Structure formats: C-alpha cells, structure tokens
Amino acid sequence: MGNSDPFQVSLDQHLLESVVHCWPACWKWLGNLESRIFRERIESVPIDRPIFVAGLARSGSTILLEFLAAHPDVATHRYSDFPLIFTPWWSHELQRRSPTTTATPAERAHGDGIAITPASPEAMEEPLWMAYFKQAHEPSSSQVLNESCEHHKFEKFYRDHLRKLLLIRGGSRYVSKGNYNVTRLAYLQKLFPDLRIIIPVRHPVHHIASLMKQQRLFVSGETNHSRALAHMQRVGHFEFGLDRRPINAGDGQAIERIQQLWSKGEEVRGWAVYWAHLYQFIIDDLQRRPTLGQASSILRFEDLCDDPHKTLAELLRHGELEDEGLVDAFAPTISAPTYYRPDFSERELAIIAEETEQVASRLGYGELTDRASAGSHTTESKQAITTSTS
Questions:
Q1: Residue 373: its pLDDT value, please?
Q2: pTM
C-alpha cells in the first residue's frame, strides 16, 4: 500500500494482484516449475526447527516477528514478497535486478506506531493456504487441520517454498507469523515434527479494546479506498474490515453467535466470545496433544513490559536460537506505553468478564475487571512481546 495513506493501493499494484489472484492454478504451476528448475539446489536445504508464531490478531505477534527476524539465522516472508508469493526465487531475482530505491519507513495501516518498508517481515504465506484449501476462510466450515489431514500437493509445494525462501534469504531457520495457523498447529507438527510454536496471548480487556479499534480503522480505510478491501482479501487478512471473518475452531454454534452479535452492533460481546472461542481451542489442543504442548510456548503480552530482558531471553531459548546480542539491543525499546487506554463502561467490563473469565484464568489472568484498572497494563503497547512458557 502507498506511503502517503496506508490504505491506498496503486492501480499498478491492484492490477498485478488481480493477475495473481484470479489465476491461482497458473501460479501454483509456475511455483512448481520454479521448484523443478532449481530442484538440485532446493533439496540440499534442510527445514530445521521452523518457528511458527500464531495467535489472535493484536496479541503482539508483529513485534514478536520483528524481534525474531532480526536474528542472523532467520528467514521470513516480507511485504515485498506479495503478490508474487508463489514464485519466490523469480520474484527475488526480479527485485534484485530492478533499480534500487531507498524506501522511507512509514506507519502501517494499523496505526500502532510500527513503521515498515517493503523489506519488513510480515505474514505473507496465507495466499498459499488459500490456493490449496478452498474453505480456509469460510466461517461456516471448521478450519481445524490436524494430524489426520493429508494434502500431498500442498505439502510438497509448501516444503519446496520454504526451502526456496531459506535459500534466497540465506537463512537456516524459517520463522512464520500466521494468525490463521492457530487451527493448523497439529497439522504443521505432522509436516515438521521438530517445529517450535509461539502463541502470544493478551489480557482480554486490553485485547478486545485493541481489536475494536482496529475494526473501526479498517472499516473506515476500506470504505474510503475502493481497492483496499480487495487487497486485504487477496493477501488473506480477514481479521478486520468490511469482510471480517472469524476463525472457526470447530464450534459452529459459537461462530454463528459471534457473527450475529457483530451484525447487531454488539462488538464488545462479539469479540469477547471470539477471544474465548479461539483461546479455549488452543489450550485444549495443546493439552490433548502432549508433543504439541511440549513444542509450544504461550507468551503473555503483559509480562514483557515487566521484564523485557528475561522474557526475550526465554523466547530465544524456546526457539532454540542463540542470543547474538539481540536481547540487549531490543529490550531497551520496550516499555509500558501510554498512548491508548481501553474506555469500557462497567457494563462492558462485566460482559467481557462473563464471556472470557473461565478461559482467561487458564492463561494466568486473575480478576478481569480488577486487572482492567490496574496501572500500566491498561495501555496498549506499541512494542510488546510477552512470554510464559506453557
């Protein structure tokens, strides 16, 4: 999107995205052709302990990704990978041979103070999932993929894609940020038994306040810019905006209730039910599958503000990455911010507690209404990752 207004999409970008989005079969074929051409080099690249960051949007996953992406061993997707995401090698070569320009960092569309350039790490693999799993974002269908799932064409394409990305980035460890992967963790472990999983969580009062703020922002942006909605649909971001879609974690009745609440304008209760729906599934999924639980770390958003050095160090240990000086470099940038405060009424706080308290207690959160009025943690952090090993 454009630098002057983060919701602006240029005509050239819009047309290129259309070419890719409207012909997924063609682009899957081109991606497989690319893999065949570079087969010898690709097969020499191991996919070693990939790290998947997955949680509900606004839980701190972006800053978490930026921290991990700064590690010299790590390779991630970038904004510039879209829309030519299916052919990363050729896209890389095209960019490498193009005239170089210096991009000025600009605040992203979320309005949260995070400045980005085309080279910034981002969640960009969702179009691959959408190309192979047609119901990936259909709220009426369960989006749970577990160890019983088999999709040989996707699995081959996906493994080849990660190897190509590692090769062109010069990395040895792949890191993915993908909120929709919360319902795919068991399937991902089947594909990569040595994977590491990081699940950011956030106090529901502050989390819901942030989600509601983003919904208002994206509805406004997509209403004012006609191409913005199509861009978000093509990149596979349905968390907010005019085409908001909840992740169905296997409870169709909960999803129906969430959509009904949203349609009636009951945003607070709708988001509260959604928060509980998703994190209830995640907790149960990790408990049902001991190996998945062992591979996963639940990271609480608030804890980092209290002790950034400790929590970042624990994060690297869980990911099995050496420090490389990252903790000392990054920790001083983290503090409890003051630019945003939830502004819920007593009734709204009671609604959030009613819908989320049982799940929140399993994540270590105490009395929700008390926590909402407790000092520094009433604010939404622009730079915060928290960790609490499960």
A1: 44
A2: 0.90
* Measured distance CA(129)–CA(136) in Å, rounded: 7
- Choose among 252, 251, 234: nearest CA to 243: 234
Long-range contacts formed by 363-366: CB under 8 A, 24+ apart: 363/201, 363/279, 363/283, 363/298, 363/300, 364/300, 364/388, 365/203, 365/204
The better pLDDT of the pair 2, 335 is held by 335
- For residues 240 and 27, the answer to whether their CB atoms sit within 8 Å is no
Nearest-5° angle of CA 123, CA 129, CA 130?
Answer: 105
pLDDT of 380 higher than 60: no
Beta-carbon contacts of residue 124 (< 8 Å; ≥ 6 apart): 77, 78, 79, 81, 82, 85, 235
First to last CA, the chain: 37
Residue 263 has pLDDT above 90, yes or no: yes
Strand partners for 300: 201
Give pLDDT tens digits for 318-373.
999 999 899 999 988 877 645 566 889 999 999 999 999 999 999 999 766 554 44
